[in-house]
From TrEMBL:
Name of the protein this chain belongs to: Redoxin domain-containing protein
Organism: Chryseobacterium edaphi
Positions of the Thioredoxin-like fold domain: 14-128
Signal peptide location: none
Superkingdom to which the source organism belongs: Bacteria
UniProt cross-references to InterPro entries, sorted A to Z: Thioredoxin-like_fold, Thioredoxin-like_sf
Name of a matching Pfam family: Thioredoxin_2
Amino acid sequence: MKTGTFSELENFEKQNQKPIIIHLYTDWCSVCKIESFQLKKDKDLIKMINENFYLINFETEKAKEKINFQGKEFNYLPNGNSGIHELALALSRNKNQPVYPLWIILDKNQNLVYYHEGEFKPKKMKEKLDEITNL
C-alpha cells in the first residue's frame, strides 16, 4: 500500500487532487495491529486505495516533527517517556485521548467526509471508499 506524509501532501495535492485517508495509530495498539494485518491481505482494497486516495499512516506517539496541515502548525507534545502529536488531538473528536485506530477521510478539498474510531473492517472500508469515490 502506498503511503505518504503530511509534508508530501502539499506537493502531491498540487499535482493530483485526490481524497485523503488519514490513519492514526500507535505501536502499542493491538486492534491496530490486527486491522493492519487484515487490510494488507485485501488486494482489492489496496488497489482501490492506491488508485483513488492519498493515504497517510500517522503514528501519533512517534511522529515528532513539526507538521503544517490546513494552514496550521502542529507540534509533538512530550509527556515523560512518551507523548502525543498535537495533530492527533486536533483530528480526534476525543480531545484528551484519541481512540485508536482512527480513520479520517477527507475529500479532495480536504473537507471531512468520514470519521471512524476503532477497527475498520476491510469490507466496510471498501463500501465507504467506493461511496466516496462516487461522490
